Amino acid sequence: MFAYPVTLKPDDNGTLLVTFKDVPEAITVGESEDDALTQALDALEAAFEIYFAGKRPIPMPSKPKRGQSVVQLPVLTAAKVLLANEMLAQKVRKSDLARRMGINQVQVDRMLKMKHATRVESLETALGTLGRHLEVSLV
Fold it and tell me: Helix 75-89 crosses helix 120-129 at what angle (to 10 degrees)?
């Protein structure tokens, strides 16, 4: 669904520095390439929280260069990104969405937390409330 190109650069202490062109706030290190890519997902999710808090749209991933590593977002994370961006695009506040859905604002807050195990059905309902439909495909 969402694959963010990542740059892995050897650091001077034997680790790999991980950066993202699309999300410059996401920076981390790893001991190996596998570790760096695992840490990269955590860095992306932490950066997304910064975007959410600042009410800034999360950048969509650019096309990776040939052979460039990517970090694939889990479906739940991708759905949260889409919800947050749609709320910003429509200028819908958390309290507005909660009122439209007939739920407490705390539930909307949880939906937008990266580490919260939100049910996909809840995100589908929230997006539906905004006139959007979530689709998942197999590639």
Answer: 20
Tokens 């992306």 appear where? 44
* pTM, entire model: 0.88
How many CB atoms sit inside 10 A of residue 76's CB?
15
Number of domains in the chain: 2
Does residue 20 lie in a domain region?
yes
- Give yes or no for a contact between 28 and 39, defined as CB atoms under 8 angstroms apart: yes
Q: Which residues pair with 8 in a beta bridge?
A: 18
Helix/strand/coil for 95:
helix
> 94 near 108, Cβ under 8 Å?
yes
Torsions phi, psi for 6 (to 5 deg): -125, 145
- Rounded average pLDDT per 10-residue block, the chain, 139 residues: 92 92 95 93 94 93 94 93 96 96 94 91 95 86
Domain limits for position 28? 3-72
Q: Let me know if 44 is exposed, middle or buried by CB neighbors in 10 A (0-12, 13-18, 19+).
A: buried
Nearest 10 degrees: Cα torsion 33, 19, 74, 30? 30
